[in-house]
Amino acid sequence: MIFTSVNELKKIVKDALIEIDQEKHRSLEGQKTYSINEVSKRLRMAHNTVKKCVLAGVIKSTSSGRITEQAINDYLACK
Cα(26)–Cα(31) distance, rounded to whole angstroms? Predict the structure, then answer.
């Protein structure tokens, strides 16, 4: 059994969330990302079609809404 204060527990959770967020950013380092508009031009698809694919999870996007090169390649491989 571990005893800790509420404030200490909050600090532990906050630190863990910060670490998770930093790890996400590190995993995207070096990967080019694109906006929905850029992807629609690249794939020669309508903007709304790409947007619907992102919303449906067919094309993966980052939490900021950007689409990685890998996500485009994954989509094209499954198409």
Answer: 10
Closest CA to 64 of 20, 14, 21, 19: 21
The strand ranges marked E within 9-74 are 33-34, 67-68
Please state, in angstroms and as integers, the Cα–Cα distance from residue 51 to each residue in 29, 46, 48, 54, following that order. Answer: 24, 9, 5, 5
Read off the DSSP letter of residue 63.
T
Q: What was the pLDDT predicted at 29?
A: 66
Which CATH fold topology does 6-78 show?
Answer: Multidrug-efflux Transporter Regulator; Chain: A; Domain 2 (1.10.1660)
**Residues sharing a CB contact under 8 Å with residue 23, sequence separation 6 or more, in sequence order:** none
Taking the chain (79 residues) in runs of 10, the rounded mean pLDDT of each run is 88 90 71 92 96 95 89 91
